[in-house]
Amino acid sequence: LSLVFLKHLFVAFPLFLLLLSFQRSTVVFSGYCSRILRAQSNRKEVNNEFRLRVEGDPESYQPGSTYRVSLTASSPSYFRGFTLIATREGAEGDRDEDYAGNFQIIDEEETQFMTNCPPAVTESTPRRRTSIQVFWTAPPSGTGCVLLKASIVQKRIIYFQDEGALTKRMCEKDSTDRPLLDCCACGTAKYRVTFYGNWSEKIHPKDYPRRANHWSALIGASHSKNYVLWEYGGTASEGVKQVAELGSPVKMEEEIRQKGDDVLTVIKMKAQWPAWQPLNVRAAPSAEFSVDRTRHLMSFLTMMGPSPDWNVGLSAEDLCTKECGWAQKVVQDLIPWDAGTDGGVSYESPNKPTLPQDKIRPLTSLDHPQSPFYDPEGGAITPVARVMVERIARKGEQCNIVPDNVDDIVADIAQEEKEEDDTPETCIYSNWSPWSACSSATCEKGKRMRQRMLKAQLDLSVPCPHTQDFEPCMGPGCSDEDASTCMMSEWITWSPCSASCGTGTRSRERYVKQFPDDGSVCTLPTEETENCVVNEDCLPSSCLVTEWAEWDVCSATCGLGMKRRERMVKMPPADGSICGAEVLEVEKCMMPECHTIPCLLTPWSEWSDCSVTCGKGLRTRQRILKSPAELGECTEELEQVEKCMLPECPIDCSLSEWTEWSECNKSCGKGHTIRTRIVKLEPQFGGDPCSQTVQRKKCKVRRCTRGQGNSEEKRRRKEQREKQRGKQGRYLLCCRMRPWSSWTECTKLCGGGIQERLMSIKQKFKTVQLSSCKDRKEIRACNVHPC
């Protein structure tokens, strides 16, 4: 197949039509694909002008995982067509099983599957482009090494390359890299997980949400291999969805607790406002959890807020080592991942549910130009967080003999969970103060207290809970060590008082969540009873009142205000007197300093329609300030404007001015005269067509006398015939010409090119020597529409 033919063919047809011309016989697609792989003749080295890249530049692939593949041209180069195919290394392409993995189309306007070779991807339309992207799902385990290969059509030249920038070799990831599924460690281990938020405006400046940035409450668990909280390629559960979209861990915790024996410890941390935290242990939130031989995996997630459905976390991190021990320390940098439940592309995109749900996948720097992590070069996303998992103790007989330190032997790792905290994320508190001394100096049960300060209330419609916390305690020297090996639930709410008037009793219960490891009986109480007083006296003049209602919202949004609460009279005094019990209480309340409350804004609205009906225009979106006006001026942006592009506007035909009318074609009698104009611009994009370019009208110079008109007309015609005969006679006398050839292809696809055609000499007479006997050439304009 000649290179000249290839050049002409690729001007008008996509690459797959070229490949089809190698053989005209009808074949199955595998045979056709094999010819694509063998079509390497007349190739030219490309010197890295073009590049085939798998995002992240991995050297190996994980079976079943999906990767983003891009084909790019370095500036100022471009390409018109391409072919992309994936095969097993060493395969000839003659069999269906020679092709590895599956491609997925991202943009149907740019790419499509090849008609005669479905495993391959080619261009949708032959036009200039500098890059294309597709997804490629790796083949199943056991496939071995894979070659991703590309061919390029640039201008009228085809580029192939077996090695280098247009071929990517990837081998299956070694099975030794996979998490251990069966643990051989002995005893149990206790860990502390610490979360460091590195998501800041300095590191991720694009569209950074200065006021509202935060991490949601973290939720996770230590669990067995039979339970999966979340994983890449999986579908988000309802619990994961609520964390990802709302930052709410309630449903996720419910799902975890329903797994029973597959879960050992529920892991919980408070929300972080703001998102960035300095890298030191005191400032970063942490939680403790335990693992054992069957529940040796650890998973968690937390939402980046605000975001459509973006999170960070670990999935099934194995803390059991191949040496039958427990990992000493695990540190991982985290990049965000998409839960597949919302289609937004930026931090504050309007809600756009994804139906049906997409698979969970890591975010990439090539997802969307409006993404805050977008990088046209496809580089790696800078981590937004770091997690550190440290072993703090071990318990029970260990399989590995040499301990890491003395504390590993003697530390007690009672399997207890951190206290639950249902604080709304819109309430921002200071850290808790240290616990006070116990109110009991003996071994009788007492109480101790700690306090915190409410620093900001971001949503006034959501009440913020208490700023004081109490817990039971006993005096110095009283040991509750033996009982601490029981894991108990929280106390259930107190029952109503047994008396409707005067002194009675009430009780509450809890249950054992986990019995001691040694099988002994749990001695902690599961029921508690105490005295209660409904009314201090039961005289005929006393009345029965309800419990106090919750305190109303503080009257001030910042600074000093007042709050109140009420109760109702359930039963008036029996003697008919007025009830003397207080039914209203008022007290002062202190809100944060006014200047500390940030702007509270609604989500962005949908983008408006484009300001034009065709061509380039603008569109806008707005959000509304929800914070009260008395809090001061909010400097946040309330309206955004961006460019929009609709189909090109119609362009009407453009004509020159009319020429002057010609002379009458008759010297006497009735005749006609004409005038013309030329087309300056052809109509485009549905514009008005061109009107007439020639006009004719009648003319009459003077009346002809008898016979004069006929003789004059004959004379004029005779002169025209002789003139025409003299003009062509030179060609007829000296040579015989071939017919005009076909017009050549236009030199440009758009913007105005040139076509030519040729009349060549067929026979030249030697007896006549005239310089005018030579080849003739005509030229005309073509493809005058704009690029």
From TrEMBL:
The keyword DNA-binding does not apply. InterPro entries: Reeler_dom, Reeler_sf, Spondin/Thrombospondin_T1, Spondin_N, Spondin_N_sf, TSP1_rpt, TSP1_rpt_sf, TSP1_spondin_dom. One of its GO terms (biological process) is cell adhesion. CDD domains: Reeler. The keyword Metal-binding applies. Residues 18-183 form the Reelin domain. GO terms for molecular function: metal ion binding. GO terms for cellular component: extracellular matrix. Keywords: Cell adhesion, Disulfide bond, Extracellular matrix, Glycoprotein, Metal-binding, Repeat, Secreted, Signal. Residues 1-25 form the signal peptide. Residues 179-372 form the Spondin domain. It is found in: Secreted, Extracellular space, Extracellular matrix. NCBIfam families: NF038123_dom. PANTHER family: SPONDIN, SPONDIN-1. This is Spondin-1. It comes from Nothobranchius furzeri (Turquoise killifish).
